[in-house]
Amino acid sequence: MIEQNEILKNLGIDELNPMQLATLEAYGVDKNLVLLSPTGSGKTLAFLLPLVQRLDAECNDVQAVILAPSRELALQIETVFKQMGTSLKVMSCYGGRPAMDEHRTMNGIHPHVIVGTPGRMNDHLEKRNFNAKTVTTLIIDEFDKCLEFGFQDEMSEVIGKLPSLKKRVLLSATDADEIPQFTGVATTEEGKLLKNKVIKLDFSQSNYGATNLLLQVVHSPEKDKLETLYRLLCQLGNQTSLVFVNYRESVERVTGYLQAKRFPCDMFHGGMEQDDRERSLYKFRNGTCPVLISTDLAARGLDIPGIDNVIHYHMPVNEESFTHRNGRTARWDATGQSFMILGPEEHLPDYVDPDAPVFELPEETPKPPKQEWATIYIGRGKKDKLNKVDVVGFFYKKGHLDRNDVGQVDVKDHYAFVAVKRAKVNQLLKMVAGEKIKGMRTIIEEAI
Length: 448
Hints:
alpha/beta; 14 helices; 448 residues; globular; 31% helix; Alpha-Beta Plaits; Rossmann fold; seven-stranded parallel β-sheet
């Protein structure tokens, strides 16, 4: 088994924080575990590290199931697991793609761990696509969000189909009033934990990164705050900013307004097709779009490093949502800013310091920032035996690009995204027109 220090090195982490150390110790006790810790504190590594140390790499059966409330969080957990660099196999499963394809993957790689959304996991268990009797560990990440999204029935069915569970771990950023008995973590009829059967670690008030977060108020002279948002974003320039609104319709309205003023941005909400959501996230991560407009769907479960600013175009419905939104920036030792845009008749909620400083916008608004990067779409992926080396080599040789012209490369099952310097896009598309990549003809175009 790979050493813990080697795993941390692969992840680029020098040392574990107090919450992760406490989780590592508590996981080794023969009891179920409930962990409360803020967004951005490293919960994913906290449960994956002790998990991989207890899995049998020689056994090709599924030994652990991890439930997550969203496709994005499932993919994030899978990514961190793979980055740890162990010999253990993992895969994610979720709605929006054929379950049959996932079943083929299961049969092909024989995963030790399956990460998935409750509905899709239940579907695979119902069809007996993997052996439920070999699963001894159940982990439910963002447990409170699973309940909020209404996954009680699906989770109950999943747990009921896992007869050999010995370890249950629930993770959340906030405490729940009660934990349903179907979880099997040992509770009273009122949903209270039995201390002799469960270890509860409460780091929810640890405020990781809170001291590095600057909260500021931005006053809008108009009830419609679109122009104020535009002026603020122009002032922030190429800094990465995540703008939160409360409704899907608002996401589309704000995005449309900014794009009409030629401000580079994209949108993200639950009503979008999954491919479109994935494309928006990729363009935000690779720097093509410095600004992402989103509902609270982006407040939790997304691993987007290096976000400079969180902007509350609409104030959230409660303090918990405010905390999760702000947790997207100032993660770990990084600094970040949170801006609250208030209209003429709006006031700060009680949970925000009434003396929060005001950010004054200059009278003259800078022009929208120019985009340094563009995203190129390639219509082939892993299922076509295409990898990152193939893509980069093709762009170097056929597109006449060099190392500084190519940024992040992300190869999915059926397609790939590549960040390319915007100044080189026209040259690249002209040079590769009609060319085969790894002997295959395919679409190569800018992802709009």
